[in-house]
Amino acid sequence: MRAEHRLIFLLTVAYRRLQRAIDQETAAHDLTSAQAGVLFFLGRNDGALIGDVSQALDIVPSAMTGLADRMERAGLVKRRRDGEDGRSQRLHLTVAGQELGKRAATRTRVINNRLMDGFSEAEIDVVSRWLSSLQEKFPKDKDG
Amino acid sequence: MRAEHRLIFLLTVAYRRLQRAIDQETAAHDLTSAQAGVLFFLGRNDGALIGDVSQALDIVPSAMTGLADRMERAGLVKRRRDGEDGRSQRLHLTVAGQELGKRAATRTRVINNRLMDGFSEAEIDVVSRWLSSLQEKFPKDKDG
DNA sequence: GTTATATATTTCGTATGCGAAATATCAAGA
DNA sequence: TCTTGATATTTCGCATACGAAATATATAAC
Prior knowledge:
The structure is a homodimer. By secondary structure, the first copy, chain A, is mainly alpha-helical. Chain A is built from 6 helices and 3 strands, in the order H-H-E-H-H-E-E-H-H. A 3-stranded antiparallel sheet of chain A has the order 1-3-2. In chain A, a hairpin with a 7-residue loop joins strand 2 and strand 3. The longest helix of chain A has 22 residues. The first copy, chain A, is globular. The interface between A and B is large, with 52 and 51 residues. Chain A binds a DNA duplex through helix 1, helix 2, helix 3 and helix 4.
């Protein structure tokens, strides 16, 4: 199999394994990994513009709409139109969203630690740099 | 943002960037990255059982069905029932699938090389080991 | 002030992927 | 043979994600 696209394959499988693990963890608490990401970001940036959330999580805007829809329907966040700019929407955490976000953060930390198990700090640093390098190697059209 | 789930975030973003890059490459040739993966695997294992493809690409069987459906509809593969075991289906490449697969492999190789740019062999080895480690850290229920 | 352009978000159609449940077939044992 | 349990695949409902096009509002040019 590998050889010809080893890293592509490895990255793809690694991602799927991670997502499944997170989803199984969070599913027990009525969350998904994507929604957990939004809760986490809003935890430190409550009331952020939808576009900012989209950019921070590297999700295209059109995908962010549905994500926000589902989270709003689940009572985790609320949209509020921006006072300054009538085009913009701000996302605010509800109380339920705040609490769920906190609990999810704890579980997420455990998984993140697990990701470092068996690797030295220097090695994790290499991995981090490599993962980050993909953002420059495959930039969005925008931030090219 | 990071800190609390740095690696999770980095891996997620890296994956999305890679997928977008592959999809943009392959979209011009009427392929998607998932379908390219199947073509590539079948290129070396033509007539493989659907379950084997699913396992090799680390896609759950229920996801494989739809993928095979779309590829069959696109004329890239054909299902054929196995002679031995009436439950099994084998996936065979069509001529179109073979050709498309070959062309896709070339483009994929370029991207794979790009993934190594700027990193030494030793570093890529660390990255590979780390990516692989996720398969043990988050095993499928099956392969425990 | 009106027109042209840029920006933020949404809508639409489609592909991917998951889990749970259904279906079909096989294999083993009573 | 009949039943019982395992296995391969599919079906269903849903969440995620993309790109292209639509919509609404803001901003600049005139």
